[in-house]
Amino acid sequence: MSGRRRIGVMGGTFDPIHHGHLVAASEVQALFGLEQVVFVPTGQPWQKSQTEVSPAEHRYLMTVIATASNPRFTVSRVDIDRPGPTYTIDTLRDLRAERPDDELFFITGADALADILSWKDADALWELAHFVGVTRPGHVLSDKGLPEDRVTLQEVPAMAISSTDCRARVVGGEPVWYLVPDGVVQYINKYCLYTGLPCGAPPVEPLARRVAITATNALSPQGDQ
Ligand code: ATP
Ligand code: MG
């Protein structure tokens, strides 16, 4: 048996992260015996430069909340902290530099995998990772033109969930409970994501001032007498 650790890499915009992402990652983790799956929220995704994407910190924090309970899931900031648009080749090079001895498995939806040949430096991708294209049962999979030994197509349980649909639901006032983890529903509500409406969260300043006043009172010499 090889001593290399097998690490999954799940890249995505995660705006918001949903149970489709989590089920896909969990399924591939189990099937491929991965020690860990690293979720990597994109910085500015180049495919989505025309559409509005939530700030990276919101997407990062939602990903942390969604994955926190699974000991095999972690989140990386490599794409968020690298300036400029996010390309998968840079993601994989950065992760490879962090863990030169590990074997990387890049998990992606079959929709995205089909476009892989158009990705930046596509030829170099195969040397950096094995690619796992996931899709729903009944969906036709095509790996035409992709190197057989570097790509595996894998059906995952039916999850007709997309971030686009979740955002549309929030805008339309429809529920996203159970499509995304509970903590993510609460995060979306707390920061009023997707609606474009001003957020009703109370300002932080008065609370900070109250704490400061309380602390000052506690320190006042009167307390000692
Ligand atoms: P959007 O609708 O905004 O494009 P998305 O739901 O496709 O969002 P992304 O963050 O773009 O989510 O996707 C990250 C990765 O997860 C991609 O490889 C995508 O193909 C895959 N993916 C998205 N939804 C599912 C799902 N329901 N089941 C399995 N994989 C999915
Ligand atoms: Mg997508």
Q: Report how far the terminal alpha carbons are from each other.
A: 72 Å
- Element order: H for helix, E for strand: EHEEHEHEHEHHEEHHH
Global shape: globular
Mean pLDDT: 86
Strand fraction equals 15-25%
By DSSP, the count of extended strands is 8
Largest sheet: 6 strands, parallel
Task: Identify the strand order in the major beta sheet.
Answer: 4-2-1-6-7-8
Helix content: 25-40%
Number of helices: 9
Overall radius of gyration: 21 Å
Helix- and strand-based class? alpha/beta
Low-confidence stretches: none
Q: Which molecules are bound besides the chains?
A: adenosine-5'-triphosphate, magnesium ion
Provide structural commentary.
It is a single chain. By secondary structure, the chain is of the alpha/beta class. It has 9 helices and 8 strands. Strands 4-2-1-6-7-8 form a 6-stranded parallel beta sheet, with helices on both faces. It has a two-stranded parallel ribbon with strand order 3-5. Helix 2 runs antiparallel to helix 8 (182-190) and helix 4 (88-98) runs parallel beside helix 6. The chain is globular. The model has no long low-confidence stretch (mean pLDDT 86). It binds adenosine-5'-triphosphate and magnesium ion.
